[in-house]
Each structure stands twice: as structure tokens, then as C-alpha cells.
């Protein structure tokens, strides 16, 4: 429903934690309607990149912009707008969520903000929870009493209720069992497709990326070393790190057996 559709652009992003750089010149563009996976082995810098893209961490060098507005050092008067258009769901699913509020209040708050901003007319908490496979009986539960997997799902429902232009998910649904994870991923995919929300999903779970995204970027040695449709990338990996990832996934994803 938003009038302008945001484009997120990262240019020559460098970052680290005092040692060798974790990110060393990452370029990336995310548009509404995109469904992009960020694939890479554990510790390669996926969360760091998601944090920087969402404005939670500043790069040592380079910049991230949302339709030209700097993300991370956003001018005060544009912060609300950036927050409405660009949402991040962190790995633990709790950042920014008041654990004392109920599930219903948490999702309702997001709808209220989105309605005020003219981003949605919906107020359907039950439908929002259904997308992440949560029955209506959870509405009265305080977020602080939920299991890890339930919190992750509420965090996603809340982010989707906000109807952002772009949604960044860092290792979503890790605490949810595999069968349910696939089903929820399919429902999330349907919703973001229907609403034209741009999605970036950081994960090393290729099954999840296969469900949620249409295109992957492989992060290795601080940079995006490969990109393309997931199954193509795994079938014909070019970079040694992609080859290692491909060898570890089931053949169903098109990876060639190790010779
Ligand atoms: N606060 C921190 N202080 C020092 N080092 C950090 C900090 N946060 C992350 N790192 C290091 O930076 C590197 C990248 O971490 P990051 O969490 O971005 O990787 P990741 O690809 O998301 O990993 P995973 O898949 O295991 O979540 C790792 O070597 C990690 O140990």
C-alpha cells in the first residue's frame, strides 16, 4: 500500500571486530519483490551484514542507503519512515520486543503503526499468526513465556504485520522443527509475494532458502563470491567455499555427488 517502494543499496561495505575484516567490500541491492538468500558457512559474517543492512551496526567503511536515505546514520526526521519501510528480524527473535506484552498486543501494535502510516488496512491478528503457524490460543500469552521457536514466529508475524517494503530475516525459524519450518516458510513466501515485500534471508539452511527465496548470494572471505538461483549455484559451484557448501547438502538440491 505504500506509495514509494524502497530500494536498499549497500556499497563497498567493510566491517570487523578489531581483527581481520569480516566484510571486505560487499555490494548488494534489494528491491521490493526480490526474494534473496544470503548463504555462507557459520561465522562468515551473515549476521554482521544483516545488522549493517538494517541499520543496527555501522560499517567501518562504505554505505547503506534506502532510496538514498543513509541507513544506520539516518537523520532523525527520516527514522520513522526508514523503520516503517525496512524491518529486521534478528536470530533470537527478541530484539525490540517487550517481553511483558502479550502476543496479541505485540502483533496489534505493528498493525496500528502500519495503519497510521497508510501501509495496511488490516487488523487481523489471527491471520497474521496463522502465517507463522501459531494457533489463536497463543494471543493471551506474554512473549516472555514463549519457547524460542514461538518467539521467532511472533517476531516474524510482527514484522510482516508492519507491512515493510523490505524484510531482513537472520536465521529465521532455527528453533522450529524442520517439518513445521518448511510449511511456515511456504506461507511467509506466499505473503511476501502477494504484498511485493522484498525479502533477504541469511541462513546456512539450504532447504529453508529453497522455500523462501528465488536467488542466493554466497558470502565468503568477506565478499559476495557467487550468485544465482540456489539449485544452479549448488549444481555448479565456482568458489571453493560454495563447493564445500554444495557437498554438504542433499542431492535433491542438485549438488553433484563428491568425486
Ligand atoms: N561482537 C563481536 N565481537 C567480536 N567478534 C564478533 C562479534 N560478533 C561477531 N563476531 C565474529 O565475526 C565473525 C562473523 O560473525 P557473524 O555472526 O556475522 O557470522 P554468521 O555468518 O552470521 O555466523 P552464524 O551462521 O554462525 O550465525 C565471526 O567470526 C564472529 O565470531
UniProtKB/TrEMBL annotation:
Coiled coil: none
Keyword Transit peptide set for record: no
PROSITE patterns in alphabetical order: ABC_TRANSPORTER_1, ABC_TRANSPORTER_2
ABC transporter domain mapped to chain residues: 8-246
Keyword Transcription regulation attached: no
Membership in a protein family: Belongs to the ABC transporter superfamily.
UniProt-listed InterPro entries: AAA+_ATPase, ABC_transp_ATP-bind, ABC_transporter-like_ATP-bd, ABC_transporter-like_CS, P-loop_NTPase
Entry keyword set: ATP-binding, Nucleotide-binding, Transport
Species annotation: Cellulomonas iranensis
Classification via Pfam families: ABC_tran
Name under which the protein is recorded: ABC-type glutathione transport system ATPase component
Gene3D superfamilies with a match to the protein in the record: P-loop containing nucleotide triphosphate hydrolases
